[in-house]
Amino acid sequence: MIEVKINHAGYHTEQLYLSDIHFSILSGETVGLLGANGAGKSTTIKSIIGTMEAFDGEIHIKDEHQLAYIPEEPILYDHLTLWEHLRLAATSYDLPNNEWIPKAEKLLKLFLLNGKEHHFPIHFSKGMKQKTLIVLSFMVQADIYIIDEPFIGLDPIATKNLITLLEEEKQRGAAILMTTHVLDSAEKLCDNFVLLHEGKMLFQGTLNELQQRTNQPLNTSLLDCFYYLLEEELVNASRL
């Protein structure tokens, strides 16, 4: 569905942070992009969606499939109501009214935003803004979802509903790339993982393969495996 090949990338040519990041996401697959703060997750996402200034590589999206992006920090228009945001998204994706309106109404109710349609999201709480972006993205039912820290700011009910939506979209055949620090959720949701450290890719594969890579038992959690892998990397770096 999408192939990512980043030879080098950064915010300008004198500061190329990422190097040799190569992975792919298949239809119906969820990939967790993981790493500590500053590992390069957001830079990788910006490279994929084409907003990174300095980029050397190739992002191949099969058959020009539609892509939806949910950023960590909600970006909304100051002077558009929630419903006007929804209409704008529907127009951008050429969705007919009889298709997008029922989806939007269902999602607004699911995320407890019904009754807020004619309010300005700029005045919403961070959690409500995040829900607005989720409604906008899932309303269009894209082929590929790029989601940066989706659970930050969400209440438990919204988190549960988002997980359900992600599973439904995965079953529909969507490809999903998700960054999150909530590794318990990542372990349950993701089929494969890409682990970054200081702009480089430490590992790509399944949890079982990560357990083998770190010489851990099969019941070892993603969090523990991630910790062991980073610890090993730090030890190796100290020997150089």
Please characterize this protein's 3D structure.
- The protein has 240 residues and is of the alpha/beta class.
- The protein is 40% helix and 25% strand.
- The chain has helices spanning 41-49, 82-92, 97-110, 126-139, 156-172, 183-189, 207-213, 222-238, and strands at 2-12, 15-25, 30-34, 54-61, 67-70, 144-148, 175-179, 192-197, 200-205.
- The strands form two sheets. It has a six-stranded mixed β-sheet, sandwiched between helices. It has a three-stranded antiparallel β-sheet with strand order 2-1-4, covered by helices on one side.
- A hairpin with a 2-residue loop joins β1 and β2.
- The longest helix has 17 residues, at 156-172.
- The model has no long low-confidence stretch (mean pLDDT 92).
Salient structural properties:
240 residues; alpha/beta; 6-stranded mixed sheet; 3-stranded antiparallel sheet; 8 helices; 9 strands; 40% helix; globular
